[in-house]
């Protein structure tokens, strides 16, 4: 009995041992499987690293040989050029690699974009500076309402000029200019003749600003700081009302004591004194945010006649102009004047005949080329008899553009002058590129403060 139990216990224990052995065998097999998978993964990673190293090495080698091939090709081309140089009697220029594309001037880009969108009618209108009466047809303009808005939509003129009759009060003037600016499709010049002294359209309109006095008194004092302060004073009250262009200062040298047309408007009879005062006035005016306009090129100081009433002629030679009159204009140009106004004086020594300077290609060319003026050239008022007695409004306007002027000031009949220039462009008498050339100068001033440098 006991023997049977003992045998049964032995069988059970043997079974247990067998199970334990089997479990240990399974554990070993699982361990070997996992180790085999791990080894495979490590092998794959190692293989991947080897492949990457090989790819990088091959790429570097290819690049190395490519560079060597390029260098060899360049060397062969240079040797060929040198060989041709030795065989040829004529010099051979070895061109340099093209430089990177130049950066586009943001101001030029803005100007070109504006001009590109303009219809031809607006381009031509943009060359004119006229009175608000000529624009709207009213007797005396003292406000800008629906009539101004409709007129500016039809004729997008480049500027409007105001006189004392247009000014009633500070509030009225400020509102009129603000509305005009708002109604214009494009930036617009709002101009006035405010020289100081005898020609002070705003100061003489009793709107609370003081007349700074005649330029002759400032010139006599010899103080350029006073000239600067005067220009800045005028500029500050003009900009406060909304003006952005002043037809000043007078750069004429009073070489003829009997000249009453210029008289005390000039800084004096000494060319050197005038040449020192003009740039100071310009700097003061422009510092206040108002564009200046030097006038009246090539100089009205010698003649006793008034171009308002008919032809005025000067017999001064080119050398005399260069010695006396031109230095004042040149000094103003170098000081940053945005405009120069062409007079209607006839100067045969400059023009070759009695053609008024404002429509003379030769005289305009002296200003542009000899004095180096790159800004806006504007005519004096084309409703003066020095022009109207010899030319129709359209003839004068076309001749002014052909001579090189950029803007046409106060033609006798605006619509006739406008249509004359428009027809000249449409028929090819004046190219549209010529109009665009002037518009670029105009908008370089109008957009000067709208683009960050």
Descriptive notes:
- The protein is an alpha/beta fold and 453 residues long.
- The protein folds into two domains: 1-94; 106-446, TIM Barrel (Alpha-Beta Barrel), CATH 3.20.20.300.
- Helix content is 55%, strand content 8%.
- The chain has 16 helices and ten strands.
- The strands form two sheets. The chain has an eight-stranded parallel β-sheet. A two-stranded antiparallel ribbon has the order 4-5.
- Helix 10 links the parallel strand 7 (291-297) and strand 8 (339-342).
- Helix 2 (106-117) crosses helix 16 (432-446), helix 8 (224-241) packs parallel to helix 9 (271-287) and helix 14 (393-403) packs across helix 15 (414-426).
- The radius of gyration is 41 Å and the shape is globular.
- It starts with a helix and ends in a 7-residue tail after the last helix.
- The model is unreliable at 1-6, 16-25, 64-71 and 89-100 (pLDDT under 50).
Short description:
With 453 residues, the protein is α/β, with parallel strands linked by helices. Helices cover 55% and strands 8% of the residues.
The helicity comes to: 40-55%
Q: Based on DSSP secondary structure assignment, what is the total number of beta strands?
A: 10
Instruction: Quickly count the domains.
Output: 2
Average of pLDDT = 86
Largest sheet: 8 strands, parallel
- Based on CA atoms alone, the radius of gyration comes out at 41 Å
**Which superfamily, in CATH terms, is the homologous superfamily of the largest domain?**
Glycoside hydrolase, family 3, N-terminal domain
Specify the number of helices: 16
> How would you spell out the order of helices and strands?
HHHEHHEHEEEHHEHEHEHHEHHEHH
| Share of residues in strands | 5-15%
Instruction: Give the neighbour order of strands across the main sheet.
Output: 9-8-7-6-3-2-1-10
CATH class of the largest domain: Alpha Beta
The assigned CATH architecture of the largest domain is Alpha-Beta Barrel
Structural class determined from secondary elements: alpha/beta
Cα end-to-end separation: 116 Å
Low-confidence stretches: 1-6, 16-25, 64-71, 89-100
């Amino acid at each position: 009995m006991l023997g049977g139990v003992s045998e049964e216990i032995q069988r059970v224990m043997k079974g247990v041992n067998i199970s334990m052995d089997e479990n240990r065998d399974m554990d070993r097999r699982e361990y070997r499987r996992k180790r085999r998978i791990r080894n495979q993964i490590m092998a794959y990673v190692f293989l991947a690293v080897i492949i990457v190293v090989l790819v990088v090495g091959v790429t570097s080698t290819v690049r190395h040989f490519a560079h060597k091939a390029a260098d060899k090709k360049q060397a062969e081309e240079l040797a060929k050029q040198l060989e041709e140089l030795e065989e040829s009697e004529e010099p051979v220029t070895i061109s340099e690699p093209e430089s990177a594309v130049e950066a586009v001037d943001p101001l030029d880009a803005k100007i070109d974009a504006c001009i590109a969108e303009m219809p031809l009618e607006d381009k031509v209108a943009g060359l004119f500076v006229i009175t608000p009466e000529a624009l709207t047809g009213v007797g005396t303009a003292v406000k800008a309402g629906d009539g101004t808005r409709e007129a500016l939509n039809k004729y997008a003129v480049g500027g409007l000029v105001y006189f004392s009759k247009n000014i009633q009060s500070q509030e009225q003037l400020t509102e009129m200019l603000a509305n005009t600016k708002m109604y214009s499709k494009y930036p617009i010049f709002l101009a006035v003749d405010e020289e100081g002294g005898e020609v002070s359209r705003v100061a003489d309109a009793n709107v609370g600003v003081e007349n700074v006095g005649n330029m002759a008194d400032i010139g006599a004092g010899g103080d350029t700081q006073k000239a600067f302060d005067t220009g800045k004073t005028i500029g500050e009250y003009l900009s406060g009302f909304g003006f952005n262009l002043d037809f000043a200062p007078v750069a004429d040298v009073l070489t003829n004591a009997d000249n009453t047309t210029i008289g005390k408007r000039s800084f004096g009879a000494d060319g050197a004194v005038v040449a020192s005062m003009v740039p100071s006035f310009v700097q003061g005016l422009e510092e206040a945010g108002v564009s200046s306009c030097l006038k009246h090129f090539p100089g009205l100081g010698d003649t006793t006649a008034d171009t308002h009433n008919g032809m005025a002629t000067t017999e001064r030679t080119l050398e005399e102009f260069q010695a006396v009159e031109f230095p004042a204009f040149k000094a103003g140009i170098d000081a940053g004047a945005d405009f120069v106004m062409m007079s209607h004086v006839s100067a045969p020594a400059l023009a070759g005949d009695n053609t008024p300077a404002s429509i003379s290609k030769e005289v305009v060319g002296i200003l542009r080329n000899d004095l180096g003026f790159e800004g806006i050239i504007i005519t004096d008022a084309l409703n003066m008899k020095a022009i109207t007695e010899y030319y129709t409004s359209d003839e004068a306007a076309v001749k002014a553009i052909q001579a090189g002027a950029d803007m046409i000031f106060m033609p006798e009949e605006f619509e006739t002058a406008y249509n004359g220039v428009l027809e000249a462009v449409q028929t090819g008498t004046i190219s549209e590129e010529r109009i665009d050339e002037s518009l670029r100068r105009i908008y370089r001033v109008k957009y000067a403060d709208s683009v960050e440098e």
